[in-house]
Amino acid sequence: xxxxxxxxxxxxxxxxxxxxxxxxxxxxxxxxxxxxxxxxxxxxxxxxxxxxxxxxxxxxxxxxxxxxxxxxxxxxxxxxxxxxxxxxxxxxxxxxxxxxxxxxxxxxxxxxxxxxxxxxxxxxxxxxxxxxxxxxxxxxxxxxxxxxxxxxxxxxxxxxxxx
Length: 163
Fold this sequence. Notes:
Shape: globular
Largest sheet: 4 strands, mixed
Strand content: 5-15%
Number of strands: 4
Helix content: 25-40%
Strand order of the largest sheet: 1-2-3-4
């Protein structure tokens, strides 16, 4: 279902906003993410982003995710990002590796890579604020593979970006 044109399908199920981007996430992705930002309101407790149909992400695409994470965090909304394809997953792992090496060698402050890492790893205060801090027995969303969302290095899940 991958197309030449990047787009994001948005569906709301109760307090959960399901977001399914499709296509290459690059500079052309920014307008589509504006629609996701517009859908964030007081009735949304979680955003679930399925990356299965995104074969390629560049740094501008990662920036779109960082901005989404910041918007979600500002509204106390939990962000789950899962089903990463190999190239985007590899890009996240490279950012983590390069950032770790740079900050440990120079003692520099956290960079954008560190903010993205925090957005995808740090446990949020948002579930407690939204009253959704109980862990479900099964995910409330399909992963397309019949299993729980993949949670490996630099992969999934919570909105906690810091700038």
